[in-house]
Each structure stands twice: as structure tokens, then as C-alpha cells.
Amino acid sequence: MSGPLSTGGVDMRRREDVMRAVRLTHWGGPPVMTELDRPSPQGEEVLVQVEAAGLCGSDLHVIDAARGALPYRTPFTLGHEVAGRVAEHGPDATGPGIGERVVVYGPWGCGCCGNCAAGAENYCDRRSELDTSRAGTGVGLGRDGGLADFLLVPSGRLLLPVGDLAPTQAAPLSDAGLTSYHAIAGIRPALGDADGGGTCVAVIGVGGLGHLAVQILRATTSAQVLAVDVREEALALATDCGAHFGTLVRPDTAEALRRRTGGAGVDAVLDFVGTSATLGLGSSAVRPGGALALVGSGGGELMVRKPGALPPGLRISLPFWGTRTELEQVMTLARAGAVTVATERFPLSRTLDAIDALRSGKVRGRAVLIPAEGLKQS
Ligand code: NAD
Ligand code: ZN
Ligand code: ZN
Hints:
Elements: E1 18-24, E2 32-37, E3 46-55, H1 57-64, E4 76-77, E5 81-89, E6 101-104, H2 114-117, H3 127-132, E7 138-139, E8 142-143, E9 150-153, E10 159-161, H4 167-191, E11 200-204, H5 208-220, E12 224-229, H6 232-240, E13 245-248, H7 253-260, E14 266-271, H8 276-285, E15 286-294, E16 315-317, H9 324-335, E17 343-347, H10 351-359, E18 366-370
Parallel strand pairs: 7-8, 11-12, 11-14, 12-13, 14-15, 15-16, 17-18
Antiparallel strand pairs: 1-2, 1-4, 3-5, 3-9, 3-18, 5-6, 6-10
């Protein structure tokens, strides 16, 4: 178990035995940059030297959570979008070899239930047990994450080789890309196949996840993509990513979206915000028999009732992260040039600045923290 370095007395550890880590030490934050012992992998564990770690809107929700609201124990290291190089194997480790570039598959389930065995650890059947024991939902979510120089991964099964993808691309693909890809898989029946044509999808919130969703939709469907955000810069990014139409949130946004479809309503909505306001917007813009994927963790509520105000036949999904196979698929799209993460790079030492930038809506695409940046070469 790693512990903070003592500040008094003589520290006999060598520099290579310690590492920096951005830790959530108490609910409400702010996170703290600490020095910890560099972990040593045991059993099946693998130590990864972090090359890039993305900062997600969920990190803000986690930092801001009230004590007891999430089933995690503090302190833990944040960072759930991680790419790097395999640095060290535990004696029983399998998977990618030392020095290989990898991305971390972030939802860490029990590893053996039906869903985990099928590569869908995001839907581990033992999730409620993991929650009750406060064992964490995945990397950087109750378990030590990748906003650090090194990350201890429980098993090689949670690592995928990235080949020639840059770490700054691979890291955000493991959540912003994967979650968007998985959410789109859930609404695909409403959108028809890639050459079907004639369907419309609204993307609400074009930040880290949303800008990748727009690109994945363009690459894998023929739907018209209608982007909605509260920031002009986000709409400009949506256009760069291939959206056909963009609108700021206004009182008549639902009608504006419906007008684009000739009045019937959009075939599907991807809500990357998840407040009551965006759920209200999405559900009033979607057509009967359409689909609404609630991805954002904005804590909003939508009344589901029959008879009620929702369009008949509406299919609502609550996607969480994605499967290992889908991570491979989204990386394949990126390697083919069909999906590119818009990144803003920060050295790991400036993580708190990156958090402030994300909080104040100043990030275009994804903020990515880079441990090696800004370090003095010795
Ligand atoms: P982000 O901050 O990068 O992007 C959010 C975007 O939404 C921004 O462009 C912002 O301007 C826009 N926005 C904010 N309020 C809006 C409103 N009322 N109407 C329209 N647009 C609005 O965040 P992100 O990293 O893309 O994450 C988005 C959400 O998805 C967060 O709530 C996060 O917790 C959640 N998330 C869920 C999963 C999952 O598995 N379900 C995975 C990752 C992130
Ligand atoms: Zn996330
Ligand atoms: Zn499981």
C-alpha cells in the first residue's frame, strides 16, 4: 500500500521509488498533488508508466460529490482515461509485454461474472457488491487512477495495446470515445444502418464526449447530426467534427430541432448533460418510437409514466462506459482517421488549472494531462 511521503526526518528513498499523484483526499476537493511510493506489482498486477490521462466531466462530479453520495472511500488517485507503457509485471501477470504501449480499459468489475467474462465489465453483475464494499467502479473511480506518474492495474486483461495511436489520443478514447461509441450502439436501431439515410440525431452537450459522438455518428451512420450546447465554441467544434446543424439552448430549441425533421421529431437523442432541462428538451424533441440515451450525470429527472407526456414507444437507455470490444472498435476508427480527439495538453503539475478550465467551460474537446511534460531532464 502506498503512503504519502513523510515531510520530516531523512527520506532514504530514491527518486525512482516515488511518484506524483493527484488525489481526492476529501469530498468537495480540491484534489491534492501528493508524492507516493511507486507501487510494486504483485500477483497478476501490471505497473503502467502513465504517458497521458484525460480529464472527464465525471471527475468534476466526483470531486464535488457530497460525503456518502458515491460508494468510494477517500483518498484515491483520480484519472480514469489512461494510456502509457507497461513498466513492470507482477510474477503472475499476463497480457502486453514490458515496454508495450497500452490503453487502460477503465471499468474494473469482478472479472468473472457473465458480463465481465464477455468483456462487459461496465455491467459487472456484482456491481452492487462492489458498491457495498466500496471497492470502486473502476480506475480513478474509488480505485487509484492515472493522474499520476504510474498506475497499478489489477490484471493484464484490462490493458489493450494501442499500436501507433498517440497516448494523448488513446487515453480519451478509453472513456470519452468508448462511452460515446457504446451509447450510439444503444440508439443504432432508431438510426437505421449506415446507408439508410433520412434519420436525425440530436447531440446535447458537445464537450469531451459529445465531440467524439458527432464524429462516430458521421463515421458509422448516415443520420443528420444536430448539435446543441450552451457555448458557441462547442457548436464551432461540433461543425468541425461534421455536425450538420448547431443551435444554442434557447426556449424554442425543441421546435428548432423538430423543424429540421419536417416536424415529426428527431429519431434519437444523445444527452451528454443529463439535467432536468436537457432531459425535458430531448424528450420533447424526439419522435414516437425514437430513442433517448442519457449519458450525462447531471442528476436531472424525467418522469416515466403511462399514460404520460413521453412519446409512445420511446426507448430510454442509461449507458455506462462500454465493453472491451467496443474500445477496440473505437480505436480502430481512430487509427483509420475517422475519429480524432481535440485535445488541450497540460503538464500533470498543472492538473488543478486543467480542472478549473474544464469547470469554467474553457476546454475545447478534452483536457489531457501529461506526466512527462514540464519535467526537468536529469
Ligand atoms: P464536458 O464538460 O467536456 O462537456 C459537457 C458539454 O455540455 C460542454 O460543451 C457544455 O458546454 C455542455 N453543456 C453544459 N450544460 C448544457 C446545457 N444545459 N445544454 C446543452 N449543453 C450543455 O463533459 P464530458 O466529459 O463530455 O462529460 C459529459 C457528461 O457525461 C458528464 O455529466 C459526465 O459525468 C458524463 N459521463 C458519463 C459517462 C457514462 O458512462 N455514462 C462517461 C463519461 C462521462
Ligand atoms: Zn469519464
Ligand atoms: Zn463481474
